[in-house]
Specification:
Helix content is about 55%, strand content about 10%. The longest helix is centred in the first third of the chain and has 37 residues, at about 55-95. The termini are far apart. By secondary structure, it is α+β, with helices and mostly antiparallel strands. The protein has helices at about 1-30, 35-40, 45-55, 55-95, 100-130, 135-150, 155-170, 185-195, 200-215, 220, 240-250, 270-275, 300-310, 330-340, 370-375, 385-395; strands at about 225, 230-235, 250-255, 260-265, 295, 315, 325-330, 355, 360-365, 405, 410-420, 420-430. The strands form three sheets. It has a five-stranded antiparallel sheet, with helices on one face. The chain has a four-stranded mixed sheet with strand order 1-7-6-5. A three-stranded mixed sheet has the order 2-3-4. The chain has four domains: about 1-170, no CATH class; about 185-215, no CATH class; about 220-340, Roll (CBS-domain); about 355-435, Uridine Diphospho-n-acetylenolpyruvylglucosamine Reductase, domain 3 (2-Layer Sandwich), CATH 3.30.465.
Amino acid sequence: MTGNFLLVFIAFLLVLLNGFFVAAEFSLVKLRSTRVLTIANSLGWRGRILAKVHNSLDAYLSACQLGITLSSLGLGWIGEPAFAALIEPFLSHIGVTSQALIHSIAFIFAFFTISYLHIVLGELVPKSLAIRMSERVGIWTAPALYAFYWLMFPAIWLLNQSANIVIDALKLKTKAGHDAHYSSEELKLILRSSRASDEFSNDEWKVLAQAIDFRELEVSDLMHPFNEVAALYLEDSFEDNMNRVLQHRYSRYPVLNSAGIATGIVHIKDIFVALRKDENFVDIDSLTRPVELVSPNTHAMALFRKLQKGAPHLTVVGLADAPPLGFITLDNLLSALVGDIRDEFRQSQTEWTKLDDGSMLGKGSLPINTLERTLGIDIASDDADTIAGLVLWALGELPKEGQRVEFNTFDVVIKKMIGPRILLVRVYPKKLPQESIPTH
């Protein structure tokens, strides 16, 4: 009888051993490499061992699998006979005389008892603990797992080599390492889950999400049509050009020749210095700096790097010796990164004006990216760069004032047109009740 209790005790130890390997496996998979590096630098020898284990994840996961398999096999070999032997005397005591029946009942009891303990204590509980407390579990299991790995190294090496041979035979190509390369959408999902757990505020989440999107943007996604630029003209008088400067109060202006081609950029500081030196100064052309010309498909990040290195903060979009297509400023790039930026002269100016019913009013020339950022959605728009272009692409013809164009997540109502140009639009997010969306 004492021998049976000893076997039962060993069976419980095997269940706990199985749980140890399960917990170690799940904690290693759950831990991020960046967090492991922090732990290694702050928690002494345990942290350093955890880093060693995590850096060779495939090998140590094999060690976990070997430990789980050996524990399970040992549990089946020792546990079932031990529990069966414990219950057999009880069955005889209550009057069960058939040996075949006693063995059958004892086997069923032992099988379900061992299975229950194995699943609950050996699998589910350690798995849940490892997922919820991956750092703590990883720190405490890593040293023992490290020792087990080297103790069983020959067997683990043989198993890994055998698995690699099978994978090679199946012509399955695998990449070394275990860290995933996340797509932009996956990174935003990770950020969204962090926002749900209050790790980031809503504003912080927006900045991070916009920074992730920024790498995919092109200049055409952010530029404004060139007919909206405040420009100075070589053929106009100095007084007319100064009136434009006083009207718009920008710091930089493109200078255009009679053909509408940008010949340079003039900074308001240069005009001020020139007038300070000579109050009769009238030669705008002498103050121009070289114009930065980029194509519409230039990546926004590439342009941003140019501006960081000293390029003019107002960039013309187009082709050399041809009328410009658009313009883009440092302010446009920063707005795409961190949201709308205002200064002393732009306290009330916004890209989209939100109305009381939840709809938004804006120019048809606004880049699609501004609407994506405002609504927090992605718009499939490979064939269009502006809201007006999106409407024309959807309709295939010129719209009429008051016409409503439906999209998956919002509706656009054309509010004002001048000739073929869509000047003003009103956007209704689809979450609004349909009856609140007027048709004009």
